[in-house]
């Protein structure tokens, strides 16, 4: 951790009580809706060593997301469950801090919306790794090896390239869609989403078959026409008609080429769904 009798940058990041590099700070924002606009419900710029940054960023998320609490008959302790898996959130934050590009002036950002949590890490993926590789086992290619090694020793990160797969599995166990991994304006972004709101689906006038399909895609990431037929014990014609409505309402979009490989997935940007809901409400108000 010393070079020419001076602390390395990694040592400063690990042990300094104050942020020696402005870009090492973590910016945390709780927005008031689903768009990144003011007013903010909560805002905090975190400073300190990387251990404090990871711990405090996780705490910021946990205090700004909902927790369900219930009593179990015959059990003294109450049950509690956050709406997102804390292990997945912490893994995303730790990865963002340790793998970020520290030559970039940008900061790690943790953004919380009503329907999702985003963790932004400045810097692109290593050339050897693609977005698709993150969804399966892959080798570890740390951008900052000295920093990574110290965090590995204290079990803040792993050295097997499985953290992103763990995030996917934790979300599935939680009943959430798989997290998304995207490159946006030079940053790697991990996005955790909540399932579509049932009240929103009711307002859009979905039938029971379509609601079951939305729930199915939430758990399995996609659905095919054949899956839909089996799920609802219906015909291909009915499935196709229902899918057309789901796409038109901005809930599903298609992926894959040709009839054989065609799959339906949830639309990741909910703005079209909200627009359809506003149009429906306006039309009902004019009747």
Your description of this structure?
The structure is a single chain. With 287 residues, the protein is α+β, with helices and mostly antiparallel strands. It contains 11 helices and 12 strands. The protein has 2 domains: 2-193, 2-Layer Sandwich (Heat Shock Protein 90); 198-286, Orthogonal Bundle (Arc Repressor Mutant, subunit A). It has helices spanning 9-15, 50-63, 86-99, 145-153, 163-173, 198-203, 208-220, 225-232, 236-248, 258-261, 271-286, and strands at residues 2-3, 6-7, 26-31, 40-46, 67-70, 79-82, 108-112, 116-122, 180-184, 187-193, 252-255, 263-266. A hairpin with a 2-residue loop joins strand 1 (2-3) and strand 2 (6-7). Helix 2 packs antiparallel against helix 3, helix 3 (86-99) packs antiparallel against helix 5 (163-173) and helix 8 crosses helix 9 (236-248). The longest helix has 16 residues, at 271-286. It is globular, with a radius of gyration of 22 Å.
């Amino acid at each position: 951790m010393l070079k020419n009798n001076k602390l390395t940058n990694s040592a400063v990041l690990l042990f300094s009580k104050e942020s020696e590099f402005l870009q090492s700070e973590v910016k945390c924002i709780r927005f008031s809706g689903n768009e990144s606009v003011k007013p903010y419900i909560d805002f905090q710029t975190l400073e300190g060593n990387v251990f404090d940054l990871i711990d405090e960023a996780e705490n910021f998320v946990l205090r700004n997301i909902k927790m369900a609490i219930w009593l179990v008959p015959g059990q003294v302790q109450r049950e509690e469950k956050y709406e997102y898996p804390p292990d997945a959130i912490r893994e995303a934050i730790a990865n963002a801090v340790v793998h970020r590009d520290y030559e970039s002036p940008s900061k790690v950002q943790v953004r919380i919306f009503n329907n999702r949590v985003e963790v932004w890490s400045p810097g692109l993926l290593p050339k050897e790794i693609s977005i698709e590789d993150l969804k399966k086992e892959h080798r570890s290619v740390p951008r900052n090896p000295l920093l990574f090694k110290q965090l590995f020793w204290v079990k803040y990160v792993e050295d097997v390239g499985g953290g992103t797969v763990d995030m996917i599995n934790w979300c599935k166990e939680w009943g959430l869609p798989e997290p998304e991994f995207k490159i946006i304006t030079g940053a790697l972004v991990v996005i955790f989403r909540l399932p579509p709101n049932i009240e929103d689906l009711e307002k859009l006038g979905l039938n029971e078959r379509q609601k079951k399909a939305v729930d199915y895609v939430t758990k399995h990431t996609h659905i095919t026409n054949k899956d839909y037929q089996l799920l609802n014990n219906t015909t291909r014609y009915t499935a196709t008609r229902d899918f057309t409505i789901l796409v038109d309402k901005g809930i599903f979009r298609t992926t894959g080429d040709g009839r054989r490989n065609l799959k339906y997935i949830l639309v990741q940007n909910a703005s079209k769904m909200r627009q359809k809901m506003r149009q429906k409400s306006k039309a009902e108000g004019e009747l």
